[in-house]
Specification:
It is a single chain. With about 450 residues, the protein is mostly helical. It has 2 domains: about 30-225, Growth Hormone, Chain: A, CATH 1.20.1250; about 240-430, Growth Hormone, Chain: A (Up-down Bundle). About 80% of the residues lie in helices and about 0% in strands. It is built from 18 helices and no strands. Helix 4 packs antiparallel against helix 6 (about 155-165) and helix 12 (about 315-335) runs antiparallel to helix 16 (about 405-425). The longest helix is centred in the N-terminal third of the chain and has 36 residues, at about 30-65.
């Protein structure tokens, strides 16, 4: 006992940099194998969240119709969740800088799992007439609101976790993988919903909720996090130290995030109406053709994020410039299309362009701030992702009524703005990667803990 006490005393007295690290030391460096496993766990986690997004879009409308909900009520369920996501994403990103990435990821994943399962239980109660239709609508709204409030923490905290553990040169590719996980989930979500709906129409909610719970348990047990969160500050100190959205190295990325979100909403929400108006299609025929186009778009996004970016180690400048050029061509094809083949090709190009742009935006914002602000900036960028769903009804839809191709003309203008930013803005011109510029000591420590 005395000998052990002497060892502990000597270790305490020795400088932290000189004393050996024990296997249980919280500052022990993670191995490449541990980081690879951690990134895989996060991939599966965000895959389930992405599945839950498109699952709700695919399954809830027909269920709501069966239960007597109006189109307005169903849309309100989606809109409330999106609005809450915008409001809370920044908060959770900042909290991950203080609490640590892992606790916030767990809050997000378990919040999503609980929300999805609760929506299923409330709808089941409606089907079984355990509750009235008047009570069911606000309960479904409340259950889905849990996802908007708590589920929004998983994406910014996961992105910050990856940023903490990658070098500047690796950042774009690693963050693209995180985005691809969510994207892949949105692709397979409708297929999962269709498969489980054969068991029961509400089964998809419980299946995806269970997958999210399992993912959360795996994160709890297996995800390593040895970096200490920032020291708790007083409310005044935390306010002074907080990364401000108006900061010159942050504001340009937020503007690009809003522009990109609006562009995606124009493409996603108006393509079906445009196809029906231009080609004179209705009903199931239009639904099938739109589904094929959307699948092509989603697959192209995955090719960009999991294939091209990983294979060729593309820079932020390349991603933004060529992503914007690709989108300009895509929107132009929609404006001047005229045939189904051209319109589907435009969607495929859009998937490639959005894959480049979304990865470039996340990586560029991450590289523009220090390590201590990774969670904050990820939350700020995450809050812009749903803004398009709020802006498009007031901008894109009136333009569509004025002229069917007008929203896509606006899309061309929005992409020209991103291209100009990528070429001329000093924030991007001065951006440095690990291969092209000096890296400070703090950045050299990325990926160690």
């Amino acid at each position: 006992m005395a000998e052990d006490e002497d060892i502990r005393t000597a270790e305490t007295a020795a400088p932290a940099a000189n004393r050996p690290l024990r296997p249980s030391d919280p500052d022990r460096q993670t191995t490449p194998q541990e980081r690879k496993r951690a990134f895989f766990i996060l991939f599966v986690c965000l895959l389930s969240v992405g599945m839950g997004q498109t699952l709700v879009f695919a399954v809830l409308p027909p269920i709501a119709a069966d239960l007597g909900m109006s189109e307005f009520e169903t849309t309100m369920i989606f809109s409330l969740s999106a609005a809450l996501w915008v409001l809370t994403s920044t908060f959770w990103g900042r909290r991950s800088d203080v609490m640590g990435r892992k606790p916030v990821i767990l809050i997000g994943v378990f919040g999503f799992a609980f929300s999805t399962s609760l929506v299923g239980f409330v709808l089941l109660a409606g089907y079984q007439h355990w509750i009235s239709m008047v009570l069911m609508f606000p309960l479904v709204m409340g259950a889905r609101a849990i996802f908007g409030i708590f589920g929004s923490g998983s994406m910014p905290a996961s992105q910050a976790y990856v940023a903490d553990r990658t070098t500047r040169a690796e950042r774009a590719g690693s963050i693209a993988q995180i985005g691809a996980a969510f994207g892949l989930g949105t692709v397979v979500g409708p297929g999962i919903a269709a498969a489980f709906a054969e068991i029961h129409i509400l089964a998809p909610f419980f299946a995806v909720g269970a997958l999210a719970f399992v993912s959360g348990i795996a994160i709890w047990i297996l995800l390593p996090e040895r970096t200490r969160p920032k020291k708790m500050l007083s409310e005044k100190q935390e306010k002074q130290a907080a990364l401000k959205w108006s900061a010159p190295n942050v504001m340009p990325w937020l503007v690009i995030g809003v522009i990109l979100s609006l562009s995606q909403s124009i493409m996603m929400q108006l393509f079906a109406f445009y196809l029906m108006a231009e080609l004179g299609m209705q009903g199931s025929e239009a639904t099938q053709l739109v589904s094929v186009g959307m699948m092509a778009m989603a697959m192209a996004t995955l090719v960009a994020q999991l294939g091209l970016i990983q294979r060729f180690d593309l820079s932020v400048q390349f991603l933004l410039r060529w992503g914007a050029v690709t989108m300009i061509l895509s929107f132009a094809m929609l404006v001047f299309g005229g045939s189904y083949g051209v319109l589907v090709s435009a969607l495929a190009l859009a998937g490639l362009g959005f894959g480049f742009l979304r990865s470039g935006l996340s990586a560029g914002a991450s590289l523009s701030v220090s390590l201590k602000d990774q969670g904050a900036v990820a939350g700020l960028i995450g809050s812009t992702a749903a803004t398009g769903h709020i802006l498009n009804p007031a901008i894109g839809i009136p333009l569509f009524y004025l002229l069917h191709s007008a929203p896509f003309m606006l899309g061309i203008g929005l992409m020209v703005m991103i291209l100009a930013f990528a070429i001329f803005h000093p924030v991007l011109k001065n951006l440095r990667s690990g291969d092209t510029g000096l890296v400070d000591e703090e950045e050299e420590e990325i990926g160690l803990h």
